[in-house]
Each structure stands twice: as C-alpha cells, then as structure tokens.
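User: tokens in, sequence out, please.
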C-alpha cells in the first residue's frame, strides 16, 4: 500500500529507497505509521519525491483504515473488491490507479491496473482512440480479453511495465523492435 502511494510520479527505485528508510526505522506497520509525526514520515519518504504531499496521502489512507476497521489492516484488505476500491477512492490523494494497485497487490484482488505505460501502449497500437482512452475504458478492454485470474493480471502488468520502460518510452520509442510488433508513432 505504501509503495502504491509513493510511486505516484516517481520511479520505483526511489520508492524502494523510501521503503528501506521506513524498514530501517522499524516502522513498516500500521500502528507505528499511524502514530508517526508527519515531519518524521516526510523525512523517511523524502527519496520518493513530493514527500510532503505523499505524507498527507499516506496519513489520509491510514486514517481511512482506522475509521473503517479500527486500524485492522487485514480486515480492511479482506473486503470484497468493489467495497475496498470504493473506500480507497474516497481517500483524498488516492486515484483509480493507486486504488487498483492496492486492490491487486496488497489485497490480492483480481483487479487490473492501468498505468501510464498501459495507456501509452494501447494508444500507440491503436487499440483505443485518444478520445476514448480513459482509465475505465482501457481497464474494461483488458478485463474483457483476459481470464479473471490474479496472477495473469500481475504478470501482464509486469510485462507492460517492461515494454513501457524498454520499448514504448515517452521519448525515443523503439517501435521497430517492440515485442508487440512495430507501430507508427505520431509525434
């Protein structure tokens, strides 16, 4: 859950540094983070960038867990997927991608995550039009074509991240070598 919040607008390597800081402080548990002073948490997550904003978002998430389940993280994550997603989306600073990441990876719910790599890939390959390429439409496209299998969703998301980082880059894409087949890129 922490990683899902910290990875907003940040490379995963920086998130790993922030999580390592939390672990080194022996603070990677609900009670410790919930009770932690905002300034202390901000300093721990500094490597993730936008650390003051992300501190507030993490605290908002922790407060929601406290409010809904008295701080029982397992109970919070065990809710049915639609209830969990709805409650996550009510948290200030948690959008669809972050909520779905938490549902998929922390709660182990069959929920397909659409990230910037996914959107860029489907647009460049013409699977959706720019005007029809919103989060929900792209998510429905994948869910309709895949078996409802958590490991399948996780694996495909990992492959999409690989393609996005190595081929379907924002700048200087390598379309001619793309494992999905070369596609013309409008620039």
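Assistant: Sequence out:
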């Amino acid at each position: 859950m922490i990683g899902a919040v910290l990875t907003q607008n940040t490379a995963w390597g920086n998130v790993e540094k922030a999580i390592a800081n939390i672990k080194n402080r022996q603070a990677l548990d609900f009670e410790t983070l919930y009770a932690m002073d905002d300034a202390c948490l901000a300093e721990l997550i500094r490597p993730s960038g936008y650390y003051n904003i992300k501190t507030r978002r993490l605290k908002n998430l922790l407060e929601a867990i406290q409010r809904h389940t008295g701080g029982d993280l397992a109970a919070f994550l065990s809710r049915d997927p639609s209830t969990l997603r709805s409650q996550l989306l009510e948290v200030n600073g948690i959008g669809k991608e972050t909520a779905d990441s938490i549902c998929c990876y922390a709660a182990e719910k069959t929920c397909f995550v659409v990230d910037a790599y996914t959107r860029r890939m489907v647009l460049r390959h013409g699977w959706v039009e720019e005007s029809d390429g919103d989060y929900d439409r792209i998510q429905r496209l994948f869910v309709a074509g895949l078996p409802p299998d958590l490991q399948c969703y996780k694996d495909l998301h990992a492959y999409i991240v690989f393609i996005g980082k190595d081929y379907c880059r924002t700048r200087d894409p390598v379309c001619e070598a793309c494992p999905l087949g070369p596609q013309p890129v409008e620039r």
